[in-house]
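Let us practice reading a record.
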Amino acid sequence: MLVLADVGCGYGAAPVLDGISVRAAAGELVAIVGPNGAGKTTLARVVGGLLPARRGTVRIDGRDPARTPRRELAHRLAYLPQRYEVAFPFTALEIVLMGRYAHSRGPGLDRAADVTAAQAAMVRCDVETLVDRRFDTLSGGERRRVLVAQALCQGARLLVLDEPTAGLDPSHAIAVMAALAAERDRGAAVLVVTHDLDLAIRTADRVIVLAHGHVIADAAPAEALATPAVAQAFGCELHLGELRAGGRFLVAR
């Protein structure tokens, strides 16, 4: 579903990514992790078609996102940026309904099917009680969950989310990752940029570690995070443990 091959890009004269090759298949949840400044958000922007690659190939379902009309791309890609600014006093429901843009045939986004999809996504993100609240009056965590709901209701085949759990309490962070895992289970490819290594190891099928614009690990979560090079990149020791109820957790020190 997603292929990046030998991609290099940056801002101005400064290179950020160098020789990046990444794949994400349908029915797979891939976590992108790495220290600050590693190039994670830049990678997400390249996939979203917001930053063209200077070299290499980027394809979403066989199409170059930087050259695909946005409405057409929106049928295949739901992209949640790290920062999202709203200049008008939209309600939470209206923000979520914007995820239905690709499915609309006119200026309106209030068809019964769109509203139903938006409301269902809001329930999954525990923001259904905020439907009539102005987006700019919500807390940071509430805004983040509303935006995840927007991505979910889009029904895209590839979801790319940059820090979807940033600012969330543990319960809501776990719930959001569970919702993304459900998207994977319905057959979507899910790419999550995150600093939460513990959630990554619990949820992802594969973890890709970036450092200094390069991929230094790409493997199953426990394998990817257990290498000395990854610990060196983060500047701390990473310890993996087993949960009594099954699964693994990670502690950094």
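A brief commentary: The mean pLDDT is 91.
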